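[audit] Reproducing an earlier prediction to check determinism. Same input, same settings, fresh worker. If the tokens differ from the archived copy the diff job will pick it up downstream; this log only records the rerun itself.
[audit] input (1893 residues):
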Amino acid sequence: MGDRLFTVLILIFFKIIQACGQEATGDHSCPEHQQSFQSSCYEFVGLQHSFLSAQAWCEWGGGHLAFIRNDETQQFLQKHMQPEQNWWIGLAPSFDNITLDVKGGISWLDGSDVIYSNWISEPVLDTGCGYISTDFNSHWKMTSDCNQDLNFICEFELGRSLSCLNHSTFLHCDSDQVIEIQNSFYGRRTPHYCRNHISASLTSSQDQCSWDSVLDLVSERCNGQQVCLAATDASSFGEPCPTLGSYLVVKYNCKYKASSVIDRRSADDSREDLFDDDVHIRHKRDSEDSKEKHCSNTPIIGAGTGFTVTCLNCDIASVADKVKLSMNKPGCDKVYWRLEDKLDLNDQGLDCITNGKKIMKLIQKGSKTTVDIDTSKLRVFQENYLVEAICKKSGNPLEFGSIIIPVHLLNVQSTPLLSIISNLLIEMKDTDQVTELREQLLSNICVTLTNSSHIEQDRDVLMVANAIKNLVEVEDEVNSGAQVEGGCIVESISYSLASVNLSTANLTELRDAAQLIVESASHILQAFDSKREKDLALYFVNGLDAVQSFMLANKTPDLEPAIITTPHISIYANRLSPQYIQQAFTIPGTNVTSATFSLPNLGNNALANIKEPVDVRLTNFLIDPWLDGLTLNSHVGGFSLTTPDGQSIPVEGLPLEIEILLPRPHEDLNSTVLDLSSHSTMAINITSENATLVLKLEPSEELPMILLLGYQDYPSDSNYVAKVTFPLEANSLVERYTWILKPSELAGEMGLYYLLVRPIVGPGVKSVNASVTITSITAQCIFWKLQKSEWSDSNCRVGPNTNASVTQCLCNHLTFFGSSFFVMPNTVDPSQSAQLFSNFANNPVVVCFIGAIFLTYILVAIWARRKDLQDKVKVKVTVLEDNDPFAEYRYLLKICTGHRIGASPSSRVVVTIQGTEGECEPHHLTDPEKPVFERGAEDLFLLTTPYSLGELQSISLWHDNSGEHPAWYVNSVMVQDLETGEKRHFLCGAWLAADIDECTIERTFPVATDADLKGFSNLFFMKTTTDFCDGHIWYSVVSRPPSSNFSRVQRVSCCFSVLLCTMLTSIMFYGIPTDPSDQSMDMGHIELTWSQVIIGIQSSILVFPVNLLIVGIFRHSRPREKKTKEKEKKKSKSQKTEKQKPFSSLVDQNNITAEFLIKDIQRIIYLFANAMRCSVPNLEKNPEKADINMLLSELHKLVEQQHSTHANDPSSVYWIYTPHLLKQIQNTEGEVRLLGPSGFSIPGSYSQVLQQVQNIKRLLEGHIYAGSFDQHPHISSTTKDKKKSCWNGFPWWFVYVGWLLVACTSVVSGYFTMLYGLKYGKDRSINWIISIAMSFTESLFFTQPVKVILFAIFFALVVKNINSDDDFVNSVCKKKATYSEGPDGLRLAKRDCMRDYYKPPPPSDIEKIKRNLAKQRKARGLIVEILVFVGFLWMLLVVAYGQRDTNGYYLSQHIRQSFEQGISDSMNYNDVFYWANYIILKNLFGEYPGFITDGNSKLVGSARLRQVRVKKDSCKIAKPMRDSFSDCNAPYSWDDEDMGSYDPDWQEPNSVNGSVDTAWSYQSQSALRGYPVWGNIALYRGGGYVVDLGSDNGNASSKLKYLFDTTWLDVFTRAVFVEFTVYNANVNLFCLVTLMLERTAVGPFQYRSVIQSVRVYQSTGGFQSFLVASQVFYFLFVCYYMFVQGKLMKKQKWAYFKNKWNLLDLFIIILSWTTLSAIIKRTVLGDRDIAYYQNNKDQFPTFHDTALADTTMGYLLAFLVLLASVKLWHLLRLNPKLYLITASLQRAWKDISSFIVVLAIVFMAYSLAVMDSSPLLGALIISSCVIFLTFVILTLFVSVILEAFSEEQENHQPSEEQEYVDLLVMKFLGLFGIKCKKKEADDKECLLTDDTN
């Protein structure tokens, strides 16, 4: 085979192992095509072989058929086996360990006993082979037919390898490990291994076989190596078993290398010190592997220099043992002999190979000039060996000599090279190899196979074919170079396959090799489709032709064809007589339709002189293997005729054409419908030159017409390219209306053609009411010219039957054919709008759809306009009414309410802001003109303070919990200081509610830091909310922010435009066929082609730019500023009014009263005290009782007190607040003067009040003068002008540009969409609408939200930018709150500081609120609990009682009464047979065939008799009675049951196997699919001796007669069962009937019947549908209960399990799911039993498993009903009376339990007395017991309960739940206007309320 191939293979393999070993874990892994389990690799081989061939297949890889030694392995194999296939395993007859003769019994192939088993039935001895039968739940079976072909399972034990004679075993470890041989023997221990080439019979082996340990030989060869090839060679090991042949078994493990130090030498180093005695490779371990190894110093081929080396025994044909060499150089001080080492591939060895030298190993050192080399060590490789001799003389340079040992001297009997190739490929497949290594290995294999003769052994052909298939099956790693090398190997191995001598070969292996060759070519062709660089067609054609020659070898004519199919290549071969050639040939069974060749009569042409059979060869390529630049869109089919010796029969120049049908992937054609009421024209775009145009017309009615074709212009009678008149003369309607235009008939150019269709009408007829559908196709029929290597269309034409899926070619010769196929894209001509709209009546779908969209747009736009008007009211900054009129420091509050359900409050919300300089007074956040704090809304408030609060620190929010829904979810708050422009954010995200979250209505939130603002949760929520509510035009139509300039109407219009444009692009590209040559990206069930990607990009380019422009215009256009004179006047007037009245109404004397003055003074005191952070004096809340003088005195005192406190603190807030307080006092002075003396009820009060006010005024003025050193400068109220942006949006008139674009895009898109829809036809239009609707829905509800969320995640993680609303805030800041004095210089404040909501509710009120809310919540929870449980109980009862059918009872009673006739209490054996003959058979086989006696119930399958028996002498006889009784037979028990097999009449069996008649052979319960049955006497097993009665009366009667004659029933019979199943379609019930006759050891038979009814078909009738729906709803209730109990369990933790009602609910949930599993199992088992009956209608069908599941389900449902009833009692606790009874029983339980113990003792005493008494005394005792229990015990019980009841009445405390019930009753009555008030005596007085109350 060549020195080069083997060396390179070993090198590549070693490098692969090194590369993979770097990541190895030390454990062996299985190849990709094998499954790992425990310590073995299992391969499930889908090829079908005989038992011996399957074992040989496994041995070839070093394994054996699988052994199943435990249940885990059995389950593992069942999991991976293909269903409906039987599998060979390693079961065979046992043998003698010495003679290897069969001794009986079953064992594994290695001779080990079968300890674990899974037999269907006990195996019959001396049968040949074992397999797993999937027909019987993967049980084992034995068969004597070992030649049948089955699938098989191979087991490859890790660390163990088996190798047959003349084959090799390949041992290897990971890169950091070496081999350590544990054990190895050669010979034969079992006759079952390596039997493929020996006799199949296992009779006496004549000569005894033995085995020898070869541990030393294998260890010497492999120990310490990473890779080792151990050949099985009789010349090396001897022959311990010459008759059957020997095999080699090696057991080894891999251990990590010992550390070593290697002295590196250059590859060409020839210095003398290399041959000194010191060792340059030092290992920690001392072994043979430490010998010196160096590179050769002589050329690879040829002798060395200096002296010659000769062979002393090379003159013979071969050397048996040793090769003797000698050197002719005397006088050497030392002689070194070195031998080429082919396995030592360390780094130094790789350097040797790289430099073109050999790796040499020192084998002898000393003075001897001769050496003997053992040939057994050289036979492993079929290669020449290099031997070097080195002579060393003192003071002289080294001298070299060498010799080549030729391979023919080594007596190699077989080539292990091919085995090595396979193992290399398998190892490479296990690793992730790069493409270059595959190509290199393929190249070397190709060179070797090309330079050598053909492989002659069938196993070697199969091995190489399997190897190449494994190498190229990973198509993504096969590059263009590897494709060429693979094609070369396919060709070479195909030639070898065709040249194998079939007379001595294994045909099964050769057929497998042929399949593998074609599969390899298919993989290469698939890789070639995506990487076309070189032509592979010649390799494929030659190789597949050789495979077809093999398939035709020795084939008998006129039989079934030989076919091989793969995903991309299929071949066909058959031998036919000449008279059978005229037929259609195709390849059936392929995954797609094959090319079809229909031959005409060739008798007078190609087959005129052919008398012998003709070979037919057909090849089908799904991918074009030729490269010529021409794209083929069809299969490539080849067809040829040859003689049996392979000579080609030329077929050309035929008078009759050959019809060739070339299939292609199905594509939707674009058809055009033309209305013939006038001249109709359509456009056709031809994109390929030299193509045939096929026009297929489908007229609505058969009528004549003229077609004119014009090029680049509309045709006319005088100007056209082609013309035709329809219909044509043809046989079929399709051909009569098909116009085929060859390239010569066209203009010969590509471009646009116009087709004119003109109907031919009679005189006076102007138009016809008809239409025609035209499909345009371009196609080309071409064939491959082998001589010129090009495609041609000579003598081939396109046929009229060409359509979308098939191209019809008509040719007069045979070769390889292909088709170029194009489908024309649709075009629409706007000039034909009138014609298209005239078809509206026939196809109104798209037009109506577009009209509906326009109408919907109008309606939605009207709604959007109304919402826009409502939003305008919301766009404002609310100036708080309770602002201090003299406070001029402004803060802007932006409060965001969350989007959660119920987030909007009905209560009064109050805010206060805390800063470093103080805290503002509480402010009520309200707006009388608009609602505030709506869900998801942003509200702006302007809050004023007398002075700056400094650096803001926190904000406090609370509400008064008023209204129906007081809870409020506040999301965030932004506070901006309008004087400085600084913003502070407060991230709230909390509920202010008494019953939600933390259950508080007051919260203080700190200022958010920069890290808080840029946190992921904040940014993600902010970005998601913004994108959904404003950025996304679809969602923002509903949730648009009121402050946005982008109105809802504009958003709706943009959506409308986008939708119509998208629909237009969709319908433009809808149905466009994709190029089949396009590469596709397969993503599961979704396949994306490049054409679809391009269409998507084109659609986006067409749709989105213009729509993005429209959205941008609307979003960024500035609002129009209206400046008409009239409006300017109104504006100035409103501004004047606003200046006069910024925060209060005009001052009117009527507004000033004493009460108003009191409130104003109280407000001043409150605000001043709050600013100074001191206690507020006690003020009278009632103005009528308050004294103004006292208030002014308090204020004067407070001012003096604060002045004295802060006099020495110039930084105190007192000095800032004093000017503000002075303004308030001055305003108060004006109010007093305006009020005048008449405003005071007490004379003299006016002057006193005025005097006090003026005193306070003078005091403050003095303080201001004294505090002139104030370091706090007055902050101007003007805001700093910020730098304006260069661009502030589009001008206002750009909105009209946007509206114009919306109108244009919408109208144009809608119009052209309607044209396309009218052109497509009705059905296609409907499909398009469904497609666009599904696409739109998916995009709107899935794609777009996912896109928004992903973008928000990216924004929050990467961008981390906080949205700014500076523009909006700046526009708000322009509205400054200026305060000009009124006519009297007064400002009236509207703040009432005495309001309760200005202070947070006290804790006591909050607790009271919490309690009330808790009661309401629990009351609502009770209602929900009651309603849910009522629904749950209703569904449960429906499900429970729906499973029962009263008809089942009547049917069972009828069957029971029918078969009980003739039953007596004393039935003997004859009575039993009489009853069976005249009662059983009469009722089983009634008047109507197939039905029992009633004629309504059908007998399902056949009935059967079954008996159970006891063994003989099953009991012991007492010694005194043994003379009188010869035997003793015990009653039935499982231990005494007879399970033997007998001959008729219960005779002992004569044969070893026993009886095969089931009437006399015991059948196990599992084999009969039975189950135990309860009788009156015992529990009987489901097995026994069985007789099937059949399905007719005569057969059953004859069987009963046979049983009676052969005494089937005897004294050992303990029970007889008559079992059958009937089905009554009237009530849809199956009845499982078991009639039982049982007896004890003595006495007659006793009768018992067991009848079970079960409904297998669950879905018949309307009630069953309702029942299924009830089951669904029931389990929805169970899921709800699971959710509730899960929350409760999470909350209560371990305390959950201490509550008995919780355990009850948990038990109900568990039982419910158990019931569901029983329902599912019943359904599955029912389907299984029905399927078994359908397939075995003549056998007894057992539905016992289904009935058992049904019974189990019934018991579970019954228990569920019981538990639900107990839970119902728990709910009835809400009734006061029942609660009182329950409490009384709990109180009395301790006493009752004591009485129960006493009662149990008394009852036990009476029972014992009765058992030991006579009948008379027993009667007296029972009577006294009844009297005692009735009059004493029960009386005491009642007394205890009554006493407890009275105590409970006296001390009864209503439960907490009773209060909830009362609350519910009050609310319920309140709905009807009835109020219920509780009296002190706890009775209710109901008063009918008046409407006026």
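[audit] rerun output stored. Observation attached for the diff report: The longest strand covers residues 771-785.
[audit] end
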